Amino acid sequence: MAIKGGGFSRKSGAGSEIPTASLADIAFLLLIFFMVTTVFRKEKKRTIEWVEANATEKIDEKRKNILHIWIERDGTVYINDVVTPFDQISEVVRPLYADNRELVVAVRGDRDVPYSQINTITEELQEAGAVRVTFATRLEQRATRARR
Amino acid sequence: MAIMRRKQKVSDEIPTASLADIAFLLLIFFLTTTVFNEEKGLPIVLPEQSEEQDVSPKNLIFFIVQPDGRVIVRRGESEQEQTVSYNQIEGILRAELAQNPNLIAAIQTDPRAAYRHMVNVLDEVKLAGAERISLQELEN
Fold it and tell me: Which of A115, A121, B1, B28 is the most buried (most CB within 10 A)?
């Protein structure tokens, strides 16, 4: 016969194992990719005492669509790490809202701030046209609710 | 010498077979431990600035927040006022909403009252399932 052994004995040149030598490279590449692309909010943390509420909802909005307004206990207002006087809030927010129509303003006020300041802020936001507002709260436990 | 000729059995290469496992473990560790702080709060949509509506008094219920945190309930058409505790608000509003689904819960807060009192009332109003909420500053 022309073919020895019916052609079955020919050795295959390809290896039957999956090459794992580059697996480590792939994994590290992924690791480095995620490390580089993860963006944390650059804003500084302010020390405020949070208000608590049972009806606290998760705000399902993209990070870039959320603007934080911090009101510290002494009445200092911070927008993007800049101290902003009350009467200039609308001027600061207006261009931000013009850039991004889906803007949601999260009011992060200290629990002991007088309401007049919160009211001024909501009025300023109305003036700027940014009408979607959230009062940032922490979820309250039922037990503390019964006590208050 | 016999000792010098003894073959070394330890390999001189760094074992790289487990490197992939280490890298994936690190990857998974960072993936699971990274916490993005969620945005949480009580959402509300403010009225447009020019938007002013006439509301019939019978569609209104006022929650008046005093500087010391006391809450007074007043139904729109009546002059009768009633001091309530926070836990009662939800029940009262639920009952009123069942009678009149168009009811607007108006939270009038004294400018001197602490923010937390207003949020407490807003919280209860939200829990009662009110859709139409109005925030006002109490005028003297």
Answer: A115
